[in-house]
Design brief:
4 helices; alpha+beta; 4-stranded antiparallel beta sheet; Cyclic Phosphodiesterase, Chain: A; single chain
């Protein structure tokens, strides 16, 4: 199974993002949109593991008791990767904060003894909303992103994070919570 750690968004947050996405979806691009129910914040993508390793990872995360108090997560603006004329990932921004960075670092530290390396790229919190592989003229789409790059979308309280499993299907990925880990006040 493919696994990753992340934060499950509440229904109100997903609904607000979906509402703000409507004009982008009507643009008729080549973007493959993520289903609203699958919106989440990925913290650490781990990848393919067997069931026994998934259980070991879940155990390590629970045992680590990562000392991060519950915190507010603010979602603002839209953007894309990479820079320039291409678009591979369309996203909603997540405002960085010390608690979110500490949670990411705590997860990496907790699973390092299991042979799961730290990410080499800096942590750039975002919610993936769509993916694209096709060549397309995104000029008008990029103008819409520029108009909405600072738009406040939502805020929610984070009191736990999840270890998700991801099953790829012809209709897109299906995410399931493998284990939920409650944040521990430091």
């Amino acid at each position: 199974m493919r696994i990753f750690t992340g934060v499950k968004l509440d229904d109100a947050v997903r609904d607000k993002i979906a509402k703000e996405l409507k004009p982008f979806k009507k643009a008729g691009t080549s973007i493959r949109w993520i289903e609203n129910g699958n919106f989440h914040l990925t913290l650490k993508f781990i990848g393919e593991v067997d069931g026994a390793m998934a259980e070991r990872i879940a155990g390590a995360l629970a045992a680590a008791k990562i000392a991060v108090a519950p915190f507010n997560l603010r979602i603002s603006g839209f953007g894309k990767f990479p820079a320039g004329e291409d678009l591979h990932v369309f996203w909603a921004g997540v405002e960085g904060n010390p608690e979110l960075q500490a949670l990411f670092s705590g997860i990496e530290t907790a699973i390092l003894p299991l042979g799961i390396a730290r990410d080499e790229r800096p942590f750039h919190p975002h919610l993936t909303l769509g993916r694209n592989r096709a060549k397309y003229n995104f000029k008008a789409f990029f103008a819409r992103i520029a108009e909405k790059q600072d738009l406040f979308l939502a805020e929610m309280r984070v009191a736990a994070f999840q270890l998700f499993s991801s099953r790829l299907t012809a209709a897109g990925p299906v995410y399931s919570v493998f284990k939920e880990i409650t944040l521990v006040q430091s």
